[in-house]
Amino acid sequence: xxxxxxxTKGAPSRDVLLVSxxxxxxxxVTIVLxxxxxxxxxxxxxxxxxxxxxxxxxxxxRGRSEKKAIKLPSGGKAVNTAAVPGQTQHEEAxxxxxxxxxxxxxxxxLTSEMLMLSPGSEDDExxxxxxxxxxxxxxxxxxxxxxxxxxxxxILKAQELPAKDFSGTSDPFVKIYLLPDKKHKLETKVKRKxxxxxxxxxxxxxxxxxxxxxxxxxxxxxxxxxRFSRNDPIGEVSxxxxxxxLTQMQTFWKDLKPCxxxxxxxxxxxxxxxxxxxxxxxxxxxxxxxxLKAMDIGGTSDPYVKxxxxxxxxxxEKKKTVVMKRCLNPVFNESFIFDIPxxxxxxTTIVITVMDKDKLSRNDVIGKIYLSWKSGxxxxxxxxxxxxxxxxxxxxxxxxxx
Length: 402
Prior knowledge:
Layout: H1 5-8, H2 14-54, H3 58-69, E1 70-71, E2 79-80, H4 89-96, H5 105-117, E3 137-145, E4 150-159, E5 172-179, E6 181-187, E7 198-205, H6 210-213, E8 217-224, E9 232-240, E10 250-255, E11 268-276, E12 281-290, E13 303-311, E14 314-320, E15 331-339, E16 348-356, E17 364-371, H7 377-388, E18 394-399
Antiparallel strand pairs: 1-2, 3-4, 3-10, 4-7, 5-6, 5-8, 8-9, 11-12, 11-18, 12-15, 13-14, 13-16, 16-17
């Protein structure tokens, strides 16, 4: 077919129309595909977000748990904010989503409060327990009189001594030695029921040449007087006299350190605790002891165990095991039940004393253990484990202490 060029002049050619149609179709397909992709991304993104919120990455879950456990103020110190008044609504909401145990609400609230306030918590993890032990300090003066060849020691006072008695106080006095001689000792008076005693007593070591004095070590031992059993050591201080200017009286403040006989040398005791919140009772099972300190001349002991239930530093009830004759590794396996209402747990202490039976004189104390939510790190751990696992016997070894 022939087309007149003049007639067709100005009309688009067939090739141009074909190209235009192809471009139009391509654009339409692209727009449709883009819409489908955006819809897919929204759906997939929503599912991915939901999966993250449900499962959580390690970093995000750890961040949320740390936020509920601690709060970092501007000072930089970690403070446990669990169950503390004044927390934010967000933190309260997070706390409410925690799973609840089958134990009563009162037990749960009391348990969380005790676990939060007790020493030896996770905030203190990694620190030496001895660094938190405060045995108090003592003030004394030392000087030498060259004309009279006399060493003068003045015991002035002590501060912040720990309580050794059930009444929450101590009856402190001081023994003075010039080591290595331990045979000749001097003692202060006993200050009754006083954790900040003032002695102001002067002691003279007469006829002591200066050349020998500088070879001695002044050793002070603070003890708690006990009328019915052996005196309990509180702490000690030693100072080499060759490092002191003895030409005039020098006054010192020294922190008391644990006595050198140490708690480890007294042996260990294995016992279990079982708390039953529904019965309001704690079962104490004295299982066995090992490596007990020999208290008799024959190099052995006749051990038995006393268990005291204390409430607000008052003795409530006492029970004891049988005596095991001439044995440093006795096996007792005796259980005792104590009635303790849940609301009294925070003020309750279980005092366990390993004794050496003696027919001819008073019984000797081998070592003690104080179990409560405010005792030492090892004792607190056992108490917390007992609260956290009701109706289960939780066993643990304990070092006997003076």
